[in-house]
Amino acid sequence: MAVIEVADLTKTYGGHTALDGVSFTVEDGEIFGLLGPNGAGKTTTVECVEGLRRADSGTVRVLGLDPVRQGRELRRRIGVQLQRAHLPDTLRVREALDLYASFYPSPRNLGELLAEWGLEDQREVMFGKLSGGQKQRLFIALALVGDPRVVFLDELTTGLDPQARRAIWELVRQLRDGGVTVVLVSHFMDEVAALCDRAAILDRGRIVAEGTPGELIYGSGAHSALSFRTIEELDLSALAELSSVTRVERCAETVVVSGTGSVIDEVTALLARNRIVVSNLRIHERSLDDAYVAITGRGR
Ligand SMILES: Nc1ncnc2c1ncn2[C@@H]1O[C@H](COP(=O)(O)OP(=O)(O)OP(=O)(O)O)[C@@H](O)[C@H]1O
């Protein structure tokens, strides 16, 4: 069941087209990533979905509600982690949660929320004294105070060390496993690959690709390569004829094969079929980063 349905959304600012027919759906209980270069239209899209901005045309439904006409009702059922949210340095964790809880008719139990997000020991600590990871966990906990069915997370782990990032990813997975649908706006391909069930890539106001991280990688045309050494007779033309292979090079005993799609599977199967013994087999698998560059035609 789709909890978010966006169809043909357009938005212009002055003469500038920010959204040019954006359509996508987010299914119940998934982590959905919205990716794209700076200025692609991610914030505009998400804020139209949240009812914070009004699109020029197109339709949005979130949990069956129209975010513009039924915005008040909708905002009770969703949670939003603001991109550069900031709280006064002297506000204590408990006070921040109490304040946010006062906005909702039936807020979560705050003790439970603190325990879930590993903030029990920080209960009486002032915001300004929290570490980056603790601040981020607090922002997410604040987005969850109203017990939302759908939560929007933006720049989830910017500026955090690898351990803190992984800890937050695990908590977001637990959130999803508990039935909350998560929309994640991110610039980080590793984050999307690690966390998202599906993602859409937005570029210049249009969705240019959509699918699971695996589908995005394999559908992108990004290249993989493998290299190996062999002293055996090897028919390079047989390799070059494989449908996924785009290039074969041999330099002395080293062979380098590049290609798209299932090139690695096809090449290793051919080597096995012909009983070619190889050594130093190295694989350069394309990543979501490679796919992103191939799809949007540029780096971040
Ligand atoms: N309030 C506004 N007034 C005028 N132009 C705007 C406004 N908000 C966004 N834009 C323009 O619309 C385009 C899309 O912006 P948006 O903030 O949605 O992109 P984004 O993908 O979220 O970018 P970033 O990753 O940098 O946050 C950009 O060209 C931006 O300059």
TrEMBL record:
SUPFAM superfamilies: P-loop containing nucleoside triphosphate hydrolases. Transmembrane segments: none annotated. Gene3D superfamilies: P-loop containing nucleotide triphosphate hydrolases. Keywords: Antibiotic resistance, ATP-binding, Nucleotide-binding, Transport. The keyword Nucleotide-binding applies. One of its GO terms (molecular function) is ATP binding. It holds the Pfam family ABC_tran. Residues 4-229 form the ABC transporter domain. The keyword Protein biosynthesis does not apply. InterPro entries: AAA+_ATPase, ABC_transporter-like_ATP-bd, ABC_transporter-like_CS, ABC_transporter_ATP-binding, P-loop_NTPase. Its main location: membrane. It is a peripheral membrane protein. It comes from the Bacteria. It is found in: Cell membrane. This is ABC transporter ATP-binding protein. It comes from Streptantibioticus rubrisoli.
